[in-house]
Design a protein that fits this description.
single chain, about 170 residues, three-stranded parallel beta sheet, elongated
């Protein structure tokens, strides 16, 4: 279980009854790591509370044995689709984070003011710098973050969890 995540979309098909631990316990342990691939639970001994628990923990599907091959194939396709979407979102987030990491401390301060909706002169006053300097930093922020508009920059800041401040 200490292997790095797969390079492509992935899913796990897990039986509820595993030697040593239950499939639900494995699902819980993987979910705690935040790197769990989508999971399909199969069981010959399922009941409604177990199914609810598995689904609340994020299982894509709970298949009672015996199941049709097509049902398993459909569940695997759904899980792989979910994995693909998550991986795309993670890659986009990593890209935004890398752009933010490229900003200087002053550019980050200016970005905070911009996403707070402050005017350049307000940001300049708050930071004790000239308005021209704010305009230069603002342009650098927009370029480095590859933001097409202030609204775009605000969305990026929101995804990064950046508070809209200048200090």
């Amino acid at each position: 279980m200490r292997e790095p995540p797969a390079d492509g979309p992935a899913c796990l098909v897990v039986d509820v009854r595993l030697p040593g631990m239950s499939g639900l316990d494995l699902q819980r342990q993987l979910a705690e790591r935040d790197t769990a691939p989508p999971i399909i639970i199969i069981t010959g001994h399922g009941d409604i509370p177990m199914t609810v628990r598995a689904m609340r923990a994020g299982a894509v599907e709970v298949l009672p044995k015996p199941f049709r091959d097509q049902d398993l194939l459909d569940a695997v396709q759904q899980a792989l689709d979910r994995s693909r979407v998550v991986r795309q979102e993670q890659a986009a987030m990593a890209d935004i984070q890398a752009r933010f990491d490229s900003l200087t401390p002053r550019e980050r301060q200016v970005m905070g003011g911009v996403v707070a909706g402050l005017l350049n002169k307000q940001i300049a006053y708050d930071l004790g710098i000239s308005e021209v300097t704010v305009k230069i930093h603002r342009g650098q922020v927009m370029q480095k973050m590859r933001a097409a508009s202030v609204a775009d920059l605000v969305r990026m800041a929101d995804r990064l969890g950046i508070r809209a401040t200048t200090s």
